[in-house]
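Form P-L/3: holo structure prediction, ligand 4'-deoxy-4'-aminopyridoxal-5'-phosphate.
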Amino acid sequence: MVRPEIQALTAYHVPPASGMIKLDAMENPWPWPESLREAWLEQLRPVELNRYPDPSAQALRSVLREAMSVPDSAELVLGNGSDELIQMIIQTVAAPGRSVLAPEPTFVMYRQTALVAGMKFCGVPLREDFTLDRAALLEAVEREAPAVVFLAYPNNPTGNLFDAGAIRELLALAPGLVVVDEAYAPFTDASFMSGLPDHGNLLVLRTVSKLGLAGLRLGLLAGNPAWLEQVDKTRLPYNLGTLNQVTARFALQHKAVFDAQAGQIRAARSELATGLRALPSLTVYPSEANFILFRTPAGRAAGIHEGLKQAGILIRNLHGSAAPLQDCLRVTVGQPQENAAFLAALEALLQPAES
Ligand code: PMP
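OUTPUT (holo model):
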């Protein structure tokens, strides 16, 4: 009874990481200050877990609007992680023969979720330097008339921002929705959030995961109320638990702590990039996110990935996932001593074997 398109998929794999320096999942490496942790636990004490959560998460919404600078005219839908919102957007428009389109390589869940929903997926190859192929993208949008276009901005796993002018052209041309996925917003100054009132078919997707709350599972989708009224119908009634709502509200009331951590991550990113660029055999791609993509000498990615693992450091091997990512590895920016340990281990692995 299992549909062939499901049988053909591979489940999203998360490797075990216990005891490792974990630089594979774009998490914020900094724990909460102890004083914040105590104040948070006090907020949890009166929570009544015998009752269902507030299905519309009213108290959280206003804090999120402010924290994410959502324009007053835009509506919000909240999800159990932005993954769930990707699923809800796709379910809203899914029908046989309709397509979802995204430049590739990109976040794999756009493709996976489209296929699970029985839709076609159209991947438009990025240029060799991972910039947007504007002409190919616009041509594909005219040809496919996709129900949704997903643009990760900055893109995962490449780390770069696509050209904003090309995105505006796409917004004018696309017959359906254009979702700008700003999962990595804490690490860049670029955003389409303030552009929401100008584009009726634009939705901006955000998450609190990369800011430092990956364990919570909370994403938000902002945009045209008419569209979001429809998307909200696909939401399961109590998709955000009470602990999630109370914790997110508390954390965002202390957003300055997380913003400071994001600032530290940005500074560490440029140090890490400098360290990687000092290793002559690597190609290092520019990043506006909290990770860096780099290309190893031909045929070395799997060995280096495994060597780092033996040294207790977990990063992401992208070799084999798609042809343009051949020999590529992706490292998440960690704490300075984690980044230093990673660079030292990588440098040792890149040394030519002694004869
Ligand atoms: N969008 C992009 C571009 C991502 O890279 C990720 C996670 N890696 C997500 C969305 C999903 O994030 P979450 O479900 O944690 O909100």
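COMMENT: The radius of gyration is 21 Å.
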